[in-house]
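User: Um, what's this?
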Amino acid sequence: MTQRPRRTFTTEQKAEAVKIVQQSGKSVNQMARELDLTPSALRKWIKQAQIDQHPIPGGPLTSAERQELNQLRRDLKRVQMERDFLKKAATFFAQESSTPMS
């Protein structure tokens, strides 16, 4: 069995698929086949939609919280790289200024 290439879906496409499943009354497996999706992906989208609709304080992250967390992690990584660069530059210039000129 060959793997098919990974596909990406927009938030709107996911929401539409969840809406279709909820309104159809059919099983997730049956709807996944009809929509040409994997059942696990469709179940994950349904679960995330339920979390987004009914957030629980201290519970699983909503989509907005997850997006903010990912952005904060990217920002933190960038700031840490900048800090490390500045430390190395400061060390370099400190060594340069301490060596006597001939």
Summary: The chain has four helices and no strands.
